[in-house]
From TrEMBL:
It comes from Ramlibacter monticola. This is Malonate transporter subunit MadL. It comes from the Bacteria. Residues 119-138 are annotated as: Disordered. The chain crosses the membrane at residues 7-27, 33-50, 62-81, 93-112. NCBIfam families: malonate_madL. The keyword Transmembrane applies.
């Protein structure tokens, strides 16, 4: 059954690549535009649709979760295929975009970390009288 999750991912991936190629052609560039992102969105939509209809077996869901966990490494591997030298020759826009992205990510992570800090533990109120159980035991 886990293989069905992989088959669902493969179907979404092929559709995403096809739609990414169509989008690239429509924009006038000869490359895939967002195919992997489209594929992952299709996978999310398909999974939610199947869960709402209760036609997604648990083992198939595990296969989908497995590939969902691998999403970031797949995107990093696909980004490594891009021609960074050509991007850098295109001007300082690529460097500026990278620097801004790093700064925004650092700011968002910092904000999330600050918002998740728990409140300080309240100091327990002092006892007004001694506990009778403690005084008897002495």
């Amino acid at each position: 059954m886990i293989i069905y999750g992989t088959a669902l991912l493969a179907t979404c991936h092929l559709l995403g690549i096809f739609l990414g190629d169509l989008l690239g052609h429509a924009l006038g560039v000869k490359t895939n535009v967002g195919g992997v992102g489209i594929a992952m969105l299709l996978l999310i939509v398909a999974r939610l649709y199947m869960q709402q209809r209760q036609i997604l077996p648990k083992l198939t869901e595990l296969g989908v979760e497995y590939w969902g966990a691998l999403y970031i490494p797949v995107v990093v591997a696909m980004a490594a295929q891009q021609d960074m030298v050509a991007a850098l020759r295109g001007g300082p826009v690529a460097l500026l975009a990278a620097a801004i992205t790093v700064l925004v990510c650092a700011g968002v992570i910092s904000a999330i970390n600050r918002s998740e800090r728990g409140e300080h533990e309240p100091v327990p109120a002092p006892l007004l009288h001694d506990n009778p159980l403690l005084t008897e035991a002495e």
